[in-house]
Amino acid sequence: MTSYTLPKFLCVVILTSMTWVKSEMCQGPCYDGWVYNNHRCFRYISEKKSWIDAEVNCVSIGGNLASDCCEEDSPFIKELQKAEKGEEPFWIGLTDCHKENIWIWSDGTHVRYTHCNDGEPNNLGEEHCVHTIWGDAGGWNDIQCERLYPSVCAMEIPH
């Protein structure tokens, strides 16, 4: 039989509980319907909306349209959408509706990474909002904000 002193016992209890918490984290610290990736929670919204209506919907459920803030996020976001609907385009939170060619994420994240298709963004026909999985390249495309697409929302991990 193993004998523990009180400090060793407490250490074992703490380490065991940390292991339990970590295994719970593997399932994700997100609310139901959201999926964890890279310190954020994501949710695919299948209802087709304009870009602004999609953003308002994301805000109403605690997030914003997804900011594809780094190269690691792009494949995850595409796979999340693909698991739901195949190769259908969907809104992300990138827009220049405030000022032409000044691209911002709707959640305020600094634009550090882009995955635009060749020749995009091109502002053809007053295109100020971005959707993804467009064309053979599978990158981002600017398009009119009034078009109707599904969307992916993202939120910071709830505390």
TrEMBL record:
Pfam family, one: Lectin_C
Keyword Secreted in record: yes
GO MF annotations in UniProt: carbohydrate binding; growth factor activity
Residue ranges annotated for the C-type lectin domain, each copy included: 37-154
CDD domains documented for this protein: CLECT
Gene Ontology CC entries for this record: extracellular space
Keyword list, A-Z: Disulfide bond, Lectin, Secreted, Signal
Signal peptide region: 1-23
GO terms of biological process kind: ossification
Compartments reported by the entry: Secreted
PANTHER family documented for this protein: C-TYPE LECTIN DOMAIN FAMILY 11 MEMBER A, TETRANECTIN-RELATED
Protein name, as recorded: C-type lectin
Source organism per UniProt: Gymnothorax flavimarginatus
Lineage: Eukaryota, Metazoa, Chordata, Craniata, Vertebrata
